[in-house]
Amino acid sequence: MSQPVILFDLPSRDPCKCWSLNPWKTRLLLNFKGIDYKTEWTEYPDIRVKFQDKFPIPEGAATYTIPTVKLPDGKYITDSIKIAEYIEEHYPSPSIHLDSPYVPKIQKLIATLMELGTGLRGVFLALVPERLLNPKSVDYWMETRSKMLQRPLSELTADERGGKAWDHAAKSLHEVTRLLKENDGPFFAGKTVTYADFYWAGFLLFFQRFGTEVFEKLISCTGDGEGADNVHLKLLEAVKPWSERDDH
């Protein structure tokens, strides 16, 4: 019997479930492809320790990251898009259509949404340690993200933590809504699943983990109402076969 793929993912507080955007993309992909895998939960401070003797930091990367997968042949691949490229090549059916024109469009919109000034960076920088991380990872998050921000996270303003951040994000969220409505969904390409769907579903699932009020605020900023006909909620419903496995 061949060994399963090992997915290295970030744990959450109990009940431990997948929460972060990038691991979600890989988890959705593995579930969609029907690939045998098991999860190895790894706290932030343990990532480097776990990988430094297994493979070098990838060229162009600042440090070791999650998601990382260990393949049955012992090879490690890190970075969600590189994992997706490998999986699509070696497990081609069903295809995830990495060449879909929706993939770069959603990548660009999510990049905008993950920044300060144009998106929701301040919202999740504050909420991740407050609502999701185990104590072991909180100090790591506060130190590394404060360094990225070039000021302590405690100095995030009320507008950066919410307020105007949602107003800034609305433009990009409305554009995602427009793209989801270009075809007769529930996916960006209509009835065909592409990797763009896992990008966006991962983003939605990430914000869903912050709690009902945060997720409802996100949905209310999409410009598509809050009922069952909301195209973002329809996408989440459509990916349920691949998002239900979130804790192992």
From TrEMBL:
Name assigned to this protein: GST N-terminal domain-containing protein
**Glutathione S-transferase UstS-like C-terminal domain: residues covered:** 130-211
An example Pfam family from this entry, by short name, is GST_N_2
Enumerate the spans annotated as GST N-terminal domain.
Answer: 19-89
InterPro entries per the record?
Answer: Glutathione-S-Trfase_C_sf (IPR036282), Glutathione_S-Trfase_N (IPR004045), GST_UstS-like_C (IPR054416), Thioredoxin-like_sf (IPR036249)
Superkingdom of origin organism? Eukaryota
Cross-referenced Gene3D superfamilies: 1.20.1050.10, Glutaredoxin (3.40.30.10)
